[in-house]
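Is oxa(dethia)-CoA placement plausible here? Inputs below.
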Amino acid sequence: MKYGRIVGWGKCAPHKVLTNFDLEKMVDTSDEWIVTRTGIRERHIAGEGETTASLSVTAARQALERAGLQPADLDLILVATSSPDYLLPPVSSIIQDRLGAKCGAFMVTAGCTGFVYALATAQQFIASGAYRHVLVVGAEVISPAVDWTDRNTCVLFGDGAGAVVLKASEEPTGVLSFVLGSDGSGAKHLWMPAGGVARPPTHETVDRREHTIQMNGREVFKFATRVLASAAVEAVEKAGLTMDEIDLLIPHQANARIIELAARQLGLPMEKVFVNIDRYGNTSAASIPIALVEAIEQGYVKENSTVVMVGFGAGLTWAAAVVKMGVFTQPRYALWRTIPSRARTRARVAVGALQMRAGALLLPLYARVTKR
Ligand code: UT7
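Reply from A.M.:
I modeled the complex. Tokens:
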């Protein structure tokens, strides 16, 4: 059982939608500038009571239901985020508790790249035989860390969560290969200067807005165009495939121009590239799982599709993974699914044994009846 097949998926976005026209009233910007420079038209922003944990739990419940699993079936929960509800405890434990799961849980922090890192990590737990069912969440409520007076950044980000469930399988599905990269020399191109131990919060750090995201957009743009295509190519080669065999590219949704450039570098037509940045903006670690869920829902990712997920972000980090989808099982018999999977397997074995005994008893009778 060395492959982690994706058997469930779910997503959640806050109710509140902030459009470019709303932003026009807040900073010196225009819908035209934002659309042409980024491809974003609107984004979801968390309201009262909506946190990284709450969005994650909703996405995770959908993924579990789709997988036909109960929280009790989970062996591990990984949560990719840079915006946990608290610095302590880890948001992964809050999510584990609210789901009612009884397993280990931890956070993976690698900026916008976090979900691909977490997916690759989850695959290792399955490949080693340690675990059978792993929940991987990518979630962010990044809006409180946005400086809503800075037009360079506030037009870009949005909140949301996406989740998948991996199940151990013999079939070569799930993460077939991955590439993880980091170059901390570019850390200050995308960072939050205060709030950590290097610069704890003070009145001064608050007054200077040092708890908000600060970004050198041009440098991050250049970095993204350097790493996106090359990471995707490396992951595809590692999987023993060629770009022609890839059904869909699911890139981090940071800027439509970056995505289009990467597609050109890879020689992929845009029909083979999934883009939903217009409705979500950049949701950081949530962007790839939300895009994956929408791509499945809209039929761009089908049974047995091979997709490449590729991301970049704070760190600076980058990552790519080649993922093969398996057969999509239909979530049926909702009540039956409420029973933990081990108990269901035992029940199936018992019913099978009963059927065999009944068959053995009825067969002579049937033979006698049909003879007459
Ligand atoms: O997950 C990773 C996160 N980050 C990213 O992926 C960001 C990557 N970078 C980008 O997406 C782009 O660099 C931006 C969208 C951030 C900026 O686009 P750009 O085409 O690189 O614009 P620029 O920074 O070169 O700025 C061009 C002009 C500047 O005006 P001047 O100096 O030429 O007069 C900016 O002040 O556009 C101005 N500008 C804006 N104008 C209207 C910057 N932001 C805005 C805005 N509305 N929101």
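Short version: The first helix runs from residue 20 to 24.
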